[in-house]
Structures are given as structure tokens and as C-alpha cells.
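User: quick one, sequence for these C-alpha cells?
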């Protein structure tokens, strides 16, 4: 298998598997280096495919040679991937449906939207799962003691709510800069 990689914004390669391993060993290819081979759909950060170390947060997405209008539109839809999660305040599961719709409509058009949409969906699905588990746990506890619900459930749910809002706002600001925010405590359903 032949590998390609990027050093100082310059594409290098192809190199054989053994040459690639040597470049990794010599630290010419690091966890932040973009790499690609024919088995991969798109360029990936070596640390992600190596499952060694996650990339630095935030990861800058290359907006390439696009017009200012295209760049702004890409950023706008990237922001919308995150802010559409607030639809969950009005529509059941809107926090998942909002980003899903934006992502499905624009993911093939814009790299930033594809990345932001996946991150937002992964976070919102993870948060929904965590919330359902918490509610199930507290329902069981509720059957035995109601004081624990008031003392523990309310603060935990407030914390989850605040973490959601803070992360979404931070992700939206970074999307406006053309960057992808890696949400914390997220199960990566979409990669």
C-alpha cells in the first residue's frame, strides 16, 4: 500500500508501507500530520487513524481556493450545524434533527459542514443517551426516595444543560473562524 502525507502544506509521496513506518519512527510523520492511502475516503490526521492521540483542539479545516462568498456560506452552514441543536427546546429530539438536516443537505458541498455536522450530531446523540440513562437511574431512585431526586437530579440536569449550551456556543464561534470543535465526552458514531 502506498501512502501520501503533508509536510509544511506540501503533499509528499507516494511512499511504501515500510518507508511510511520509518517516517513515523523518525517523527517526520507525527500525530498531527495529514495522511492518505487508497483505502481511505479522505485525508485524515495520523493520530486519529493510529488511535494514538486525538488531534489538537480545534482542528483547522482547509478552506482552499474559494471565493469569499463560498467561504462565508460554508462557515454559515457550519455554524448552523451547531446552533440548530437549539431546536430541541421547541421540538422533541430537535437537538438531533436540526444538525442532521443541515448536515445531510450540505455535507457533500462543504468540508467544514461535513466535519461540524458529524461533531454536532455525535455530541447531541451522546448527550441524549447520557440524559436518558440519568433519567432511568433517577426514576429507579424516585421509587425509593424522593429527596435524592431533588438534591441530586436537578443539579446534574442543570450541569448537563449548561455544558450543552456552552459547548454549542464555543463550537459555533470556532465554526465562524473555519475551525472544527471537538466536543468533549462524545461517542463518535459518525467518523
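Assistant:
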Amino acid at each position: 500500500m502506498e501512502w501520501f502525507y503533508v509536510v509544511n502544506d506540501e503533499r509528499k509521496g507516494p511512499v511504501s508501507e515500510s518507508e511510511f513506518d520509518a517516517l513515523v519512527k523518525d517523527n517526520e510523520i507525527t500525530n498531527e500530520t495529514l495522511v492518505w492511502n487508497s483505502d481511505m475516503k479522505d485525508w485524515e490526521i495520523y493520530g486519529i487513524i493510529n488511535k494514538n492521540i486525538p488531534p489538537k483542539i480545534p482542528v483547522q479545516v482547509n478552506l482552499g481556493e474559494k471565493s469569499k462568498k463560498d467561504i462565508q456560506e460554508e462557515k454559515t452552514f457550519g455554524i448552523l450545524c451547531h446552533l440548530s441543536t437549539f431546536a430541541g427546546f421547541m421540538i422533541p429530539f430537535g437537538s438531533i434533527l436540526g444538525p442532521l438536516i443541515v448536515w445531510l443537505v450540505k455535507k457533500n458541498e462543504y468540508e467544514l459542514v461535513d466535519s461540524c455536522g458529524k461533531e454536532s450530531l455525535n455530541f447531541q446523540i451522546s448527550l441524549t443517551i447520557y440524559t436518558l440513562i440519568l433519567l432511568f437511574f433517577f426514576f429507579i431512585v424516585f421509587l425509593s426516595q424522593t429527596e435524592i431526586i431533588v438534591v441530586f437530579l436537578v443539579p446534574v440536569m442543570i450541569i448537563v444543560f449548561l455544558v450543552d449550551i456552552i459547548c454549542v456556543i464555543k463550537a459555533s464561534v470556532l465554526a465562524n473562524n473555519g475551525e472544527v470543535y471537538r466536543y468533549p465526552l462524545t461517542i463518535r458514531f459518525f467518523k
